[in-house]
Amino acid sequence: MIRTLTATRYAVPLREGGSLPAVLEATDGSSSELFVTKFKGAGQGARALIAELIVAQLAALLDLPIPEPALISVDESFGRTERDPEIQDILKGSVGLNVGLAYLDGAFNFNPLSSAEFVSPERAADIVWLDALTTNIDRTVRNPNLMVQQREVYLIDHGAALYFHHDWTGLNQDRIRTPFPAIRDHVLLPIAGDIEEADARLADRCQPASIARILDAIPDELLTFAPTGTSPAFENATANRQAYAAYFRERLRGPRTFATLANQAREEVLAESPAPLPYRR
Q: In which band, very low, low, confident or very high, does the pLDDT at 277 lie, cut at 50, 70 and 90?
């Protein structure tokens, strides 16, 4: 279950990329916690938040570490005292449910030169497989979107994944089955184990029933959200869930060329790169 909390304090903006997330304090009625929150009123819209929820739950399904995802409710009065007009506009457009990941206190950004020891080849291969499945273009050396806390590497920031859902009308079987060439730039590819072995480990976990549970956890409010002046892509939330389910059903159908291509890219990178540092704990 994904918890729903109420935002109580806008702590600090995180001026990275186009989504302008923020650290918020939120409460479940008994205690307060900090969450790195993305807003549906930001430039990337609700679909970036949907991507966050789907990928976070897939990561949990595959036993990959990710900060706890949560739904963060923002009321109309929240942020009225915010002086920055850009932030105030985002908060006004984000009344209702938004998406946060638990704030990792004391964590630091993953660096492939100094942090590789915290990721085993098998774990790296599993992360590469997940990102190839979800077409995540945002896990590169330039922008790893990995955090290290107490020697554990956590996956964060998946708003750029599942980019197909920004153009449902252009989606067809060929496009769904297309490999993911951008995986060649993945920050963990040089230290990853065999991706096809990861495919054998992970694909069977992503059964239709598991995907359905992941999609059921996405609120109707996000699935039907459309900025002022636009229309939602689907008549209702149920139709949108069915479209996501059909996408994953086809993308996960064997043979999975996205895994084969990822492994080929790994072999090419290894052939042209110095040997990676040995994994150690």
A: low
Cα distance between residue 206 and residue 204, in whole Å = 5
pLDDT bin (cut points 50, 70, 90) of residue 83 is confident
H or E element, residue 280: none
Query: Distance between CA 86 and CA 104 in Å, rounded?
Result: 26
pTM of this prediction? 0.94
CA distance 127 to 112: 14
- In tens, the pLDDT along 152-164 reads 999 999 999 999 9
CA distances from 196 to 99, 129, 201, 202 (A): 32, 9, 9, 10
Q: How far is the CA of 10 from the CAs of 6, 23, 34, 193, in angstroms?
A: 12, 7, 10, 41
Structure tokens at 181: 């060439």
CA distance 59 to 131: 10
Q: What value, to the nearest 5°, has the Cα angle with vertex 141 and ends 135 and 142?
A: 95
Q: What is the arithmetic mean of pLDDT over 125-135?
A: 98
Spatial distance between the Cα atoms of 66 and 100, rounded to a whole number of angstroms: 12
**Alpha-helical runs (H) found in the chain:** 45-61, 85-92, 121-133, 173-177, 195-202, 208-216, 220-223, 237-251, 257-272
* Cβ neighbour number for residue 11 with a 10 Å cutoff: 15
Within 13 A of 9's CA, how many CA atoms are on the CB side? 7
